[in-house]
Amino acid sequence: MFELTGQELLLICLAFFLGGVLKGILGIGLPLMVLSILGVFLSPTLVVALLVVPIVMSNLWQAFRHGLPAGGTRRLLPMSLVFVLFTALGAALLASIEETLLFVSLGVIVVGFSLFNLRGMQLVVPPRHEVWAGPCTGVVAGLLNGISTINGPPLVMYLVGIQLSKEDFVKAYGLVALFGSVPLALSYIGVGIFGFDEFIVSSMALLPVFLGMWAGQVVRSHIDKALFRKVLLVALIVLGGNLIRRGLF
Prior knowledge:
Layout: H1 6-26, H2 30-38, H3 44-50, H4 52-66, H5 77-94, H6 99-118, H7 130-148, H8 152-161, H9 166-190, H10 196-204, H11 206-220, H12 225-248
Helix pairs in contact: 1-2, 1-11, 2-12, 4-9, 5-7, 5-9, 6-12, 7-8
Keywords: Cell membrane, Membrane, Transmembrane, Transmembrane helix, Transport
Pfam families: TauE
Membrane topology: Multi-pass membrane protein
């Protein structure tokens, strides 16, 4: 049993709302935003547990809303299978990772991904290399997903690298993320990270998440996406740097 103050509950609602806004605008980024904000104030293991229900439900909604990418799932199957397997492995590792290492690791992930995208860098994966690049991406994304619920950096780089259309990118990411969210939840239950109390608070976070996603979709057509993206990435670099500071000092 864990206790949260009224201020912490308000902060949780705000973080999940902002994460929902980000997902509504860009289609990704819910765990990245929530961990960057709440990781400064709460135990990262608790924050990861609270993300379980919103991640499962938002990925389920995104996958069913957008449908399958062109050509079906065959192209993504090798990466997805490895992703699911290493998600379970990463979740098992989470229970034994020291909090200091977890803070630093999360901060490095957030800062690294933000800098990579801020500089406009993009990987290109030729079709002949997908046979090994896909499973390798699944390993990295699965471990990150299991340890932190953050799978966006490697998945986004790979899906952009195989040159999917914008529509197919959203469909593919939603589908792969859904594949990883179910074993994530089951593994967290198995290792004792996600119990009844965490389930209750995590379920309560659905409301601000879906309100944020709705708000993000509403404003998506009325903002300069490039400017929003740059401001967001700079903010994430600051938040990620603070996570590293908390882990080291």
